[in-house]
């Protein structure tokens, strides 16, 4: 057995003990952290070239969730059954679509991940997260981890020539030469922005504002336009969510000016080719190859949807409409992807779950009101995070890999219910 395997087994055992005895939110933190590290592990650790690290974490998360089931049931929190049932029905429909999918090999891989892992990410926070302290530790750990990653990118980016856009721009790797869907960036930025607006002291607000420098600057240096777009969306949503009637919104003004200043600074110091790619969509040059490819995906996707609008072509079937084989292809828009592969039935179940969550947490938010403002604001961060992840999912990644949507909904449900339970216990 290799040294790496021995170290990994011991670390796994320690993390399991910590999760069971002290920090039940630890596996959720690791699910967030693994996203920007996954490609690094796949390329540097031979073991992970045969076994996906995400699947190992998912299995671990599932076991810990089951072990925590008796204690979770003892809390008797009344989570909305319609949301949980809708996700169960959606997962069942995904698996059922394997009977008629035109991509049985990749469809099985994608369908199992979507039906099992994403469902687990929605349910597990309701079983693992016990109190508001767990929520705070998860928020703090996400911010710290993201600061490490994006400070590294800001100070010491590792550039490689990207195989698109005529090879005229560079992309900075998370640890070297690669970038992945920056879920940790979306969440950390949302948490920091919420911390700025909710802070009761200038010192705390200033600390959170300083955290936004490497997150925004590093997001720009990755060459991913969506990183900057998500921060802008998070800023707007946070100001709207955290602003209170009859009060001056000086924090919001300072926040907008600060983000704008960081973006301008990043534009000045980053490679010209990289800055051109990010701002090209705002200039007379219009969309680059990446943008035009997405428009083509949307056109082909709409045609594919019309071929089988009721039940869809089956999970993973989009590649066959593109003229490809049984392989990973996606239209870069999860609503379109659900419509293509799962039809109107699948789309209805997905939207019912989504809007059911939003309706439920808005009712809880109204019930909490000003009674526990700090707790409500912590919970509001996850509502903003859902908006940001949904925004990102309209232009990148496939349905299964946009699992942050399910994770954020689970964490949001847990957070709002914990705050309301604390109020009722008083």
Structure description:
This protein has 426 residues and is mainly alpha-helical. It is 72% helix and 1% strand. The protein has helices at 3-21, 26-44, 53-67, 69-75, 81-96, 104-128, 132-155, 183-198, 202-221, 225-242, 250-269, 272-279, 289-307, 318-321, 334-368, 373-393, 404-425, and strands spanning 159-161, 170-172. A two-stranded antiparallel sheet has the order 1-2. Strand 1 (159-161) and strand 2 form a beta hairpin. Helix 6 runs parallel beside helix 17 and helix 8 (183-198) runs parallel beside helix 10. The protein is globular and about 55 Å long. The N and C termini lie far apart (54 Å). Mean pLDDT is 80; it is low at 161-180.
User: In what range is the share of β-strand residues?
Assistant: under 5%
How many alpha or pi helices? 17
- What is the β-strand count? 2
Detail the poorly predicted runs.
Answer: 161-180
**Class derived from helix and strand content:** mainly alpha
Helix-strand string: HHHHHHHEEHHHHHHHHHH
- State the end-to-end distance: 54 Å
- Please bin the fraction of helical residues: over 70%
Annotate the secondary structure layout.
Layout: H1 3-21, H2 26-44, H3 53-67, H4 69-75, H5 81-96, H6 104-128, H7 132-155, E1 159-161, E2 170-172, H8 183-198, H9 202-221, H10 225-242, H11 250-269, H12 272-279, H13 289-307, H14 318-321, H15 334-368, H16 373-393, H17 404-425
Antiparallel strand pairs: 1-2
Helix pairs in contact: 2-3, 2-7, 3-6, 5-6, 5-15, 6-17, 7-8, 7-9, 8-9, 8-10, 8-16, 9-11, 10-11, 10-16, 13-15, 15-16, 15-17, 16-17
